[in-house]
Amino acid sequence: MSARLHIDWTAGEGRGLCTELLHELLDRDEWGYPLPRDGAAEPAVPAALDRPARRAVAACPRLALRLRPPAA
User: Fold this and answer.
1) Which helix (H) or strand (E) holds 35?
2) Which residues sit opposite 66 in a β-bridge?
3) Among 4, 58, 64, which Cα is nearest to 34's?
4) Of the residues 1, 51, 54, 68, which has the maximum number of CB atoms within 10 A of its CB?
5) Model pLDDT for residues 2-54, shown as the tens digit of each residue
6) What does pTM read for this prediction?
7) 30: Cβ contacts below 8 Å, ≥ 6 apart
8) Quick count: other Cβ atoms within 10 Å of Cβ 52?
């Protein structure tokens, strides 16, 4: 099972840094806010993207991204 990426849209500012760092999982809306490419509320993070996802979480200037444990 893989971790899930939580996006707090109320914390973000639409700068798009997370979409640049994690373009495999995230796209941008017309205002620059991240949108999961798969349409899920909290997209699953494949093992191959664990490191880039952690980098995106750490680099988010507004702390709008979090990794959550896999759903049970």
Assistant:
1) strand 34-36
2) 6
3) 64
4) 54
5) 899 999 988 989 888 989 999 999 999 999 899 999 999 999 999 999 999 99
6) 0.88
7) none
8) 15
